[in-house]
Specification:
heterodimer, A: 549 residues, mainly alpha, Cytochrome C Oxidase, Chain A, two-stranded antiparallel ribbon, 2 strands, 65% helix, 1% strand, B: 213 residues, Four Helix Bundle (Hemerythrin (Met), subunit A)
């Protein structure tokens, strides 16, 4: 059995969690639920809305860049758009994405638990998430509109501008709360609710990744909380801590901001790496190569990731000594990431590879994320960074690691755990076409940015010199390809939910505990808490269950 | 015994077995306290940086604060931490009445602290020492920074006192209703942990603002 459990044979068919009769009916059975699976799905549906709206903003911004000068929007609108695009994508999609949706749905099952440690707190996290998201959108329509500062809210501009910075910042503050509580919940869950026999080094690597991520969420998020609070207080009362006219130092804001926001990029990408470590052994039909190094490298990334924030400030006027040290540490953080990539590729070696849709997205991730990682080294090196900072090179790099890292894996996880979540299967062919389409669109959209940036195209302008137009046209066309691919994917999945064929408990031949329970799982996941006797990627007794017609 | 009551008992046992994990709940509380420490940590970093830049002005500004008031508040808060512990011990010894008494003392101390703080802040406001206030504007940048941080840090701390009081009040209500008992006192302990954190932060705030000249 999967994860080497002692099998409980002859299961009676239990009602799945969609159809179980609880205290409440209809919409309330969702809004007042404490079931981790329902909460995960609520995150998924709200996140889809946020993602699609921020994506629309991105497409409109690309459209603006089609020609030099004003194409479809004014400079002010453009500034607000990239701020809102950043705020929604980062705080509402990339940071909570994988942990909130798949961490919630899958993690307790992978641990052999019936729910998370604090189910009610879990629901509170979702409400805070919705309130934060709502406030961000709300700030669009009140006062003088949403902030035009970019998602980084750099002072002193953020304390001078007349737009609605306070409200937008407060939205981010509330979202931080949600993130902290989710992290806290997962940490205690992993410590307390592992099933019998599930030792630390028998945990699936996704759990390890979430574990490392949760520590960052708990230990880094409060710092941004207080920083954002200070921006609000600064705007409201003029206390002076960040205001240079009152003797404050804007550089300190940048320090505090990045002390959170750099570790936050690992909040974004670590869970995604965890998912990759799940998908690859399943579809290579081999135990993962280098389990312990991968598990430890997650913690390594979390630890070193704390100490590299200064590389965002190479051109902000920090001392040479600190710049050299931060640059060195930045190179060091590439090591554990490299360990992961090599182990994934080594797992594929001589494997019996089944290129399904989730696997395709994962392979795409390895390719794209490697480009993102290598261009990160270019920016981590002091001399090249001074030349490339604040250009499109940074924008390209950022999207290659963030969208290419977390975004693509979010899609991969959707396809991987879809049968478990809905008990149905999407159209595999369409999913694969969408994956290729997305891969092409992605590179056409973002690769020209490296070249543009190298030639000196600055970021965050709605206008540019005519010599950059060719690249901007290619990039904008790429955005159309990418978006059409994403839409095809989304419609295929929605169609799968509605009309998909019924699937089995273990359609992929997965080895972790979630594949031992029915699809979709019953309310408390396990009829009897399983006992684990081997590591997570033992394929010896696993057989893929074909769909019976 | 009828079958119904038997199943009810079984369900109750099941319920307790399922949901009650005192150690886990304490662990969650500690993790939350870590986040609080880091929240204030950001402010302490700012304090350290500005103290380094404006060492002299900070010393001058600190002399504006009343050490006696601060000292009294420190004693009040330390006493309240003691009474919270005594309250937990009393409940563990199954003395509900004594426990509630100690918690009432804790609440009284917390309120007394806030009243003191109110008078302290009020006096400063009266003298025009507040952000953008007339007196503070005449002072140097270092003093502005000192009082900016003073108001933010003690204000945020005061907010935590209020949250702590609400937490303890909620726990007292549950003790009265016998939800929290001699064998099930984790929530009380958690509220105590939170109260100690509030206390410890003040232990750092007091010397940094009142004592270092």
């Amino acid at each position: 059995m999967a994860n080497g459990t002692i099998a409980v044979e002859g299961k009676t068919a239990e009602v799945d969690f969609y159809h179980v009769k609880g205290k409440y009916k209809g919409i309330l059975s969702w809004l007042l639920t404490t079931d981790h699976k329902r909460i995960g799905l609520m995150y998924l549906s709200s996140m889809t809305v946020f993602f699609l709206s921020a994506m629309t903003l991105g497409v409109l911004m690309r459209l603006e860049m089609l020609t030099p000068g004003e194409t479809i929007m004014s400079a002010q609108t453009y500034n607000s758009f990239f701020t809102l695009h950043g705020v929604i994508m980062i705080f509402l999609f990339i940071i909570p994405g994988v942990p909130a949706v798949f961490g919630n749905f899958i993690l307790p099952i992978q641990l052999g638990a019936k729910d998370v440690q604090f189910p009610r707190l879990n629901l509170l996290s979702w409400y805070l998430y919705m309130i934060g998201g709502g406030l961000a959108i709300f700030s669009l329509f009140v006062g003088s509109g949403i902030a035009d500062t970019g998602w980084t809210f750099y002072v002193p501009f953020s304390i001078r501008t007349t737009t609605n910075v306070s409200l937008t910042v407060f939205a981010a503050f509330v979202l931080g709360f949600s993130s902290i509580l989710t992290g806290l919940n997962f940490l205690t869950t992993i410590h307390r609710l592992r099933c019998p026999g599930m030792t630390w080094f028998r945990m699936p690597l996704f759990v390890w990744a979430i574990y490392a991520t949760s520590w960052i969420q708990v230990l880094a998020t409060p710092v941004i909380g207080i920083t954002l609070l200070l921006v609000i207080l600064e705007r409201a009362f003029g206390i002076g801590v960040f205001d240079p006219t009152l003797g404050g130092d804007p550089l300190l804001y940048q320090h505090l901001f990045w002390i959170y926001s750099h570790p936050a990029v690992y909040i974004m990408v670590l869970p995604a790496m965890g998912v990759v470590s799940e998908i690859i052994p399943t579809f290579a039909k081999k135990p993962i190569f280098g389990y312990v190094p991968i598990a430890i490298s997650s913690l390594g990334i979390a630890l070193v990731g704390y100490l590299v924030w200064g590389h965002h400030m190479f051109s902000s006027g920090i001392s040479d000594t600190s710049r050299v040290i931060f640059s060195l540490l930045t190179f060091i953080v590439a090591l554990p990431s490299g360990i992961k990539v090599f182990n994934w590729v080594a797992t594929l070696y001589k494997g019996s590879i089944d290129v399904t849709a989730p696997m395709l997205f994962t392979l795409l991730f390895i390719f794209i994320f490697s480009i993102g990682g290598l261009t990160g080294l270019v920016l981590g090196a002091l001399n090249t960074d001074i030349f490339l900072t604040d250009t499109y090179f940074v924008v390209g790099h950022f999207h290659y690691v963030m969208f290419g890292g977390m975004g693509l894996i979010f899609f991969a996880s959707l396809h991987y755990w879809f049968p478990k979540m809905y008990g149905k299967m999407y159209n595999e062919k369409v999913a694969k076409v969408a994956a290729y389409w997305i891969g092409i669109g992605f590179n056409v959209l973002y690769f020209p940015m490296f070249i543009m940036g190298y030639l000196g195209m600055p970021r965050r302008y709605y206008d540019y010199l005519p010599e950059f137009q060719t690249y901007h046209i290619i990039s904008t066309v790429g955005s159309w390809i990418l978006v059409s691919g994403i839409l095809v994917m989304v419609f295929n999945l929605i169609n799968g939910i509605r009309n998909g064929k019924k699937t089995t408990d273990n359609p992929w031949g997965g080895t972790t505990l979630e594949w031992t329970v029915p699809s979709p799982p019953p309310l408390e996941n396990f009829e009897e808490i399983p006992t684990v006797t081997t590591g997570p990627y033992d394929h010896t007794h696993i057989h893929k269950q074909e769909v019976k017609n | 015994m009828s079958q119904n009551t038997e199943t009810a008992v079984q369900e109750e046992i099941h319920e307790i077995h399922m949901h009650r994990d005192d150690f886990g709940s304490k662990m969650g509380m500690w993790l939350f306290l870590f986040t609080e420490v880091l929240l204030f940590g950001g402010l302490f970093i700012l304090y350290a940086s500005y103290r380094f830049i404006y060492a002299e002005s900070f010393a001058i500004a600190a002399s504006e604060l009343d050490v006696l008031m601060g000292a009294v508040n420190t004693v009040i808060l330390l006493t309240s931490s003691l009474t919270v512990v005594l309250g937990i011990v009393a409940l563990q010894k199954n003395n509900k009445k004594l426990c509630l008494f100690f918690l009432w003392v804790t609440i009284a101390c917390g309120i007394l602290f806030l009243v003191n703080k109110y008078f302290e802040w009020g006096a400063k406001f009266h003298h025009g020492i507040y952000p953008k206030g007339p007196a503070l504007q005449d002072m140097g940048e270092g003093e502005v920074m000192y009082f900016g941080l003073y108001y933010v840090m003690t204000g945020l701390h005061g907010l935590h006192i209020i949250v702590g009081l609400a937490f303890i009040g909620f726990v007292m209500w549950q003790i009265k209703k016998d939800v929290i008992t001699a064998t099930n006192f984790q929530k009380l302990e958690n509220s105590g942990l939170y109260w100690h954190l509030v206390d410890i932060i003040w232990i750092f705030l007091f010397p940094l603002f009142y004592l270092i000249h």
